[in-house]
TrEMBL record:
It is found in: Periplasm. Its main location: periplasm. It comes from Diatrype stigma. The keyword Signal applies. GO terms for cellular component: periplasmic space. This is Ca3427-like PBP 2 domain-containing protein. PANTHER family: ALIPHATIC SULFONATES-BINDING PROTEIN-RELATED, TAURINE-BINDING PERIPLASMIC PROTEIN. Keywords: Signal. The keyword Zinc does not apply. Belongs to the bacterial solute-binding protein SsuA/TauA family. InterPro entries: Ca3427-like_PBP2. Coiled coil: none annotated. Gene3D superfamilies: Periplasmic binding protein-like II. Residues 91-195 form the Ca3427-like PBP domain.
Length: 312
């Protein structure tokens, strides 16, 4: 019985995008244990595979890259079960406050890029940026191509990334615009440019142990659709209570009230979380292959990345 089972453990990034999760728990009885991952989606992939969490809400490109890599372990550990944010993510490109030599995006070719960890959104988008800028070698297979950066400095979280571009451990990094803006305003870091994800920015994944996809007699854990339904209610509440959202974001998270209100103008959450548009995943895979993150003919295919039987 679902009632006798422990609550699901849901991983999330403690940023403004997490506000509907808070509302789902506060107002609609979401009984999950929420686990914060300031280090982002790449860390949540590790946690899903180790059994530390059951469900995670994070960046589309990280989930797709994590399943599409040719060295993905076992059954991948998770599947994409739902959509969360329909709008693209604006990744701000940042450098240190006193790095005058880095005066444009073009100056970043061959530089040291700071990332939270390999497989994270900050890592994947580094290749998407390089592809957009024409820095990738087209004369060799993507798996053998020369990296577009001199070093990938693994720095785990946003605070260490900010420190690294000021002490020289990294030349630049990419992180969400509004999360970065406070530190532009304070003068701690400097904005070089921006890049938007060419796909809806956030999706929901669940551990394969919840999905019952190993045989005809296995069923999806009933706690999962229940949690997604509560999350739908949290999103609907968010859409109807922007003032409460701003109050929460500006007092519990690292944003000013003005920035929270500006962010609200740019974001659209999915009204129904269950189900994933295969076309979105196919598009993401195609771009990641072009960018050299994934290799054509290797790794999991888009259809295999999606959970089966959860509805659409």
């Amino acid at each position: 019985m679902a009632e006798s089972q422990p609550p699901l453990r849901i991983g999330f990034v403690p940023e403004h995008f997490s506000t509907p999760i808070h509302f789902a728990q506060k107002h609609f009885g979401l009984t999950a244990t929420l686990k914060s991952f300031p280090s982002g989606s790449g860390h949540m992939i590790t946690a899903l595979r180790s059994g530390e969490i059951d469900v995670a809400i994070g960046l589309t490109e990280a989930w797709v890259a994590g399943l599409g890599k040719e060295d993905t372990p076992g059954d991948g550990g998770y599947r994409i079960v739902g959509n969360y944010v329909k709008t693209p993510l604006c990744w701000a490109i940042s450098t240190g406050a006193k790095r005058p030599e880095i005066d444009s995006v073009s100056a970043l070719k061959g530089a040291k890029i700071g990332i939270s960890r390999f497989g994270s959104g900050s890592y994947v988008m580094g290749y998407v940026l390089a592809n957009q800028q024409g820095w990738l070698s087209t004369s060799a297979p993507s798996s053998a191509a020369e990296p577009p950066y001199s070093e990938f400095a693994v720095l785990h979280d946003f605070a260490r990334l900010r420190a690294a571009v000021n002490d020289g451990a990294a030349d630049f990094f990419m992180w969400e615009h509004f999360t970065s803006k406070r530190y532009y305003d304070s003068g701690e870091i400097r904005r070089v440019g921006e890049i938007y994800t060419p796909w809806p920015s956030w999706h929901i994944v669940a551990s394969t142990s919840l999905l019952g996809q190993g045989g005809p007699d296995q069923k999806t854990d009933p706690r999962l659709p229940d949690a997604l339904a509560k999350l739908d209610q949290g999103i609907a509440y968010f859409d109807q209570h922007h003032d409460e959202a701003v109050q929460y974001i500006s007092t519990h998270l690292d944003y000013s009230e003005a920035d929270a209100r500006e962010w609200l103008k740019t974001v659209e959450f999915a009204p129904k979380t269950v189900g994933v548009d295969l076309g979105v995943v196919q598009n993401c895979v195609g771009i990641l292959r072009k960018a050299g993150v994934l290799v054509e003919g290797k790794g999991m295919q888009p259809e295999e990345m999606l959970a089966k039987g959860l509805g659409a």
